[in-house]
Specification:
114 residues; Jelly Rolls; 1 helix; 57% strand
Length: 114
């Protein structure tokens, strides 16, 4: 058994630049990669696509998650405890508005294995 503390990992994550969200890989295996994000107020992860499924859990805070419906981007407010699942190649993005947003993403299969 491996025990992880994703909230602490997100709070301790380092950002490559103060204007960018902080991220950290908390677990990496051939089957899945777990990544935490810490987005400060106003920070965002731009819309992008991933060949894998992405399961996203809001650990703390509030913000906006973007997904897709019938090929059109759709925004949804999110708060601690919410979970969304993005299908492979579905457009997705994350944004913190007035408060810090902590997220845990489970990416399956692990990037680079498809």
């Amino acid at each position: 058994m491996i025990r992880l503390d994703p909230i602490r990992a997100a709070r301790d994550a380092a950002a490559p630049h103060p204007s960018r969200p902080a991220t950290a890989i908390v677990h990496d295996s051939p089957d899945a990669r777990l990544v935490v994000f810490r987005l400060g107020p106003g920070q965002h992860v731009p819309p992008h696509r991933n060949a894998s499924s992405v399961h996203l859990v809001v650990l703390a805070g509030r913000g906006v998650l973007t997904g897709e419906k019938d090929g059109t981007p759709v925004d949804a407010a999110c708060a601690a405890g919410d979970m969304v699942v993005y299908a492979p190649n579905e457009l997705h993005a994350m944004r913190a508005e007035s408060e810090e947003l902590l997220l845990l993403a489970a990416i399956t299969p692990r990037p680079g294995t498809r």
